[in-house]
Specification:
The structure is a single chain. This protein is α/β, with parallel strands linked by helices. It contains 14 helices and 14 strands. It has helices at residues 17-32, 43-48, 56-59, 90-99, 111-122, 147-168, 183-191, 206-218, 235-251, 256-269, 272-284, 304-323, 342-345, 357-364, and strands spanning 4-9, 35-39, 51-53, 80-82, 85-87, 104-109, 127-133, 145-146, 171-176, 196-198, 224-229, 288-292, 328-333, 336-341. The radius of gyration is 22 Å and the shape is globular. Bound molecules: 6-O-phosphono-beta-D-fructofuranose.
């Protein structure tokens, strides 16, 4: 028998997770005669030693399934809720890893998972990660699996909203996920022909958005589609958030009031799409409606592109385990799967740069971003 591998899925689920589990399992069993187990519900399963053996039967028929057959959670090894107390459980995980007789652990997750994996790796556990998230915001890889599927779902929704916006001469404000990055909003907005795209990387002014909509009206278009990323903020909100963050850092401990204000601002921002639509109605005189796509973007069958990426990265991870490589995320650059040190990935986020070609394309089509460049 070859080496033994553990797999876990952590963070929000993402289409393509099962395709990756299948690829890791099949390549490990068929090519390297390895033993494979899957831990339930992310790092909590590793802490509680809850795992299943993954064999040809369990791995069969899961390629096209959404979600993760293993279950997932957002729990962090060093901050686990143990009966109401937050505890560092990394040492327990190291013990469990050894007692199950594993040679490597492959964690499928996003940026947060890379951070958690790095912690375990620094304590001596041979860990690798694969980048999954619909947000596409993992540093060190050109793509993450899950993004393409969510892009398809969001684009289809925008297509459907177009016809109803057109019929009723309305503004439709459609909120997509993406956390603090605008990849999903920008990609689906471009693919779906949005008139305005709001992303966290470009703080907006409501007046500039309404001007874009009024300009369209003057040119004869009495409807508009505004795609807004869940993390998008107005320029004044962004400025205040930055002031508060700087203030909190500078006052070291004496910061309750500032922390409360920041938390309140962030909570209000999380519900800002309705407010935005209401304000656009006031400023343009057009009727507005809101659609929040939410978790529908994470559900269902993965696209062929995501299946392919997950399969490529999964098999590459097994090759690396076979070679004794660990402490890396298996990212993708063009056609090649590349190991990227976890210490380079953890704590960073891949945001949309100002000069990204998609931004350039959108601006040349006169898509508004609610900023001065619009
Ligand atoms: O990271 C994926 C993601 O779907 C983000 O786009 C979103 O902000 C978040 O997860 C939602 O998290 P939850 O599933 O915990 O509501």
């Amino acid at each position: 028998m070859g080496k033994s591998i553990g797999i876990l899925t952590a963070g929000g689920d993402s289409p393509g997770l099962n395709a990756a589990i299948r690829a890791i399992g099949k390549a490990a069993i068929r090519t390297h005669d390895m033993n494979v187990v899957g831990f339930r519900d992310g790092f909590r399963g590793l802490m509680q030693q809850r795992f299943v053996r993954l064999d040809s039967d369990t791995l069969s028929g899961i390629l096209t399934k959404g979600g993760t057959i293993l279950g997932t959670s957002r729990e962090k090894p060093h901050k686990m809720d143990i009966g109401g107390k937050v505890m560092d459980m990394t040492d327990v995980m190291l013990e469990n890893f050894a007692s199950v007789g594993l040679d490597a652990l492959i964690c499928l997750g996003g940026g947060g998972t890379a951070k958690n994996a790095l912690r375990l790796s620094e304590k001596g556990m041979p860990v690798l990660t694969l980048p999954k998230t619909i947000d596409n915001d993992v540093w060190g890889t050109e793509a993450t699996f899950g993004f393409d599927t969510a892009l398809g779902i969001a684009t289809e929704a925008i297509d459907r909203l177009h016809s109803t916006a057109h019929s009723h001469h309305r503004i439709i404000v459609v909120e997509v996920m993406g956390h603090n990055t605008g990849w999903l909003a920008l990609g689906s907005g471009l693919a779906g022909g949005a008139d305005v795209i709001l992303i966290p990387e470009i703080p907006y002014s409501v007046e500039a958005i309404s001007q874009s909509i009024l300009d369209r009206k003057t040119a004869g278009s009495t409807f508009s589609i505004v795609v807004v990323s869940e993390g998008a903020v107005s320029a004044p909100e962004r400025q205040r958030m930055e002031e508060l963050t700087t203030g909190i850092a500078a006052t070291q401990g004496e910061t309750d009031a500032l922390e409360h204000e920041l938390a309140a601002l962030e909570a209000a921002q999380a519900k800002s799409t309705d407010r935005l639509a209401h304000r656009l109605e006031e400023l343009t005189g057009l009727e507005a409606r809101v659609t929040i796509l939410g978790h529908v973007q994470r559900g269902g069958t993965p696209s062929p592109v995501d299946r392919l990426l997950a399969t490529r990265l999964g098999t590459a991870a097994v090759e690396l385990v076979d070679q004794g490589v660990s402490g890396v995320m298996v990212g993708v650059r063009g056609d090649v799967a590349v190991p990227v040190p976890l210490s380079d990935v953890a704590g960073k986020r891949k945001t949309v740069p100002d000069d990204h070609p998609w931004i350039h394309v959108a601006r040349s089509l006169d898509v508004g971003f609610g900023d001065e460049g619009s």
